[in-house]
Amino acid sequence: MYTDSKILKSLFYVQLFSSFLVVVGHFTASVLYFNDPFWVVALNQISRYGTVLLTIATGYLTAYSFEAKSPTPRDFFTGKLLYIFLPYLVSGILYHYLLKKEMPQTTLDFTNILMGKTGDHLYFVFMICQYYVFAYFFRNWITKRNILYVIWLLLAVQYVYINYLHKGWLELSTRHMLPSWIFTLYMGHLLYWYRETILSFLRNNRSILMLLTGIATAAAMFFVVSSKLYVAVHLTFVFATLLSFLVLMVFFLELVDHLRLKFRKGLTYFIFLFHSAFLILFKDFLFEQYGEVAWVFQNTWYSLLYLGLIFGCSFLLSLLLVWLVKGLEQLGRFAGKARRERLQ
């Protein structure tokens, strides 16, 4: 029997793996400027799974939060403001400074920060903030009772918006807008509401699980060799990633009792936010010291070592931020308790 505790632990490992894929994606995008051996192209294509896996996981965790915690509007949006939006703003300011070598000053600068334009990956958080607002206000409209019907409407919304409705308002890409991801996000809700049925079925039917694993692997190979670039919001890519998500969930569920890495709230989010800072800083350092970076990327072992260094630094910084946030939470609870005691 897969308990909710084990499922959440498995989901944490999926998120951690996804954050690594996101780092790989931005790293290989840098390598492609200098060299494009097959392994770099393959990793770049596979890395696109990372964002979609994180999207499905976000939908799953949001559905879990609504059901398990029943948050009030104040609790829900205060939490998102403190733990999602404020770090997002900090990272936006950081990337503005790293890329332009100056602090934001103009209205346009701050507008770009708010809309996730200062970092190539921050569009995702801008979109997720839209989703949290939508998901909370529609939590009583889109439910387990009707999701099997509504999901087809959301599929149509995502397809029609991407292919016909998006016009690039405010110089925002398709990826910035919630309708481009709405089906993907609510697949996470569906998986949460039917988690017991789906996971038990896969656990008890190993032949079906092996078939899904084979299809997911074949799909990944197809994306690697395809001359067409399948972006993260492309529905073909979404369905392939959904299969991979299920396979990874079962895989980690089988290992979760043997893995010692503890769940850290915010760890994968901070890796996502700040890994590109190390890409920029290390690249600037190499330019300053050697005048160019091609010699790193043209050597496979140097490249892999460089990738490991980027992810390792991102991981350590994120752990530090997790401990900092946890300390601030404890300090806030202590201050609140002391205030209540004084009032009594």
Structure, briefly:
With 344 residues, the chain is mainly alpha-helical. It contains 14 helices and no strands.
From the helix content, strand content and strand pairing, which structural class follows?
mainly alpha
Largest sheet: none
One letter per element, helices H and strands E, the order comes to HHHHHHHHHHHHHH
Q: Round the Cα radius of gyration to an integer and report it.
A: 21 Å
Please report the distance between the alpha carbons of the first and last residues.
47 Å
Give me the count of strands: 0
Helix count? 14
The multimeric state of the shown protein is single chain
Q: How many domains is the backbone divided into?
A: 1
Q: Mean pLDDT, nearest integer?
A: 91
Give the helix proportion (percent range). over 70%
- The proportion of residues in beta strands is under 5%
Model regions low in confidence, pLDDT < 50 over at least 5 residues: none
Global outline = globular
Provide structural commentary:
- The chain has helices at 4-31, 38-47, 49-69, 73-100, 107-114, 123-137, 147-165, 182-193, 195-204, 206-225, 235-255, 267-290, 294-297, 300-343.
- With 344 residues, it is an all-alpha fold.
- The chain has one domain (4-343).
- The chain is globular and about 60 Å long.
